[in-house]
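User: Quick sanity check before I run a bigger batch. Here is a single chain. Can you write out its predicted 3D structure?
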Amino acid sequence: MEKGGGRHWTDDEVRALLCVWADWRIRDRLKCTLRNKSIFQEMARQMQRNFGVVRNWKQCRTKYKNLKYDYKTAKSAHAAGGSTAGGPGKYMKFFDEVEAILLDRGLENGTMEMQKRLYDGDMAAGKIKTQASHTAPMTASEGEVVIEIDDGMYSV
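Assistant: Done. Predicted structure follows.
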């Protein structure tokens, strides 16, 4: 197994992935190509550069697929349960954000709109106690070197 492959995604890591995925250039490329390794490599680079999240392209692709699957499952569970069962968000965290991405709804400014959606609500509710780091790109520390290997990214 790849080192770190079994580590669970934190909510902040999922938020970073959603913000990168919300970019219209990423969405368009994902819609029109089957060979998408390079897209997920770019997503992993952007997650590290902009949010300080270190995940390789395979982990990003797997999480992307799982989010899409969970979205479809939640949507169909809601449809089967009728309107009294509560919204589909009851079945999946980040349901509204994934739906906005998949349906190209409310993301005219892409990443910026998704950041507002994901972070502003949490900050207003007091869920995030750290400084609003999402508004300024995070940079790697001086001593950190990022090496890209054909099958992913590793930080040394």
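The chain has a mean pLDDT of 74.

User: Great, the batch can go ahead then.
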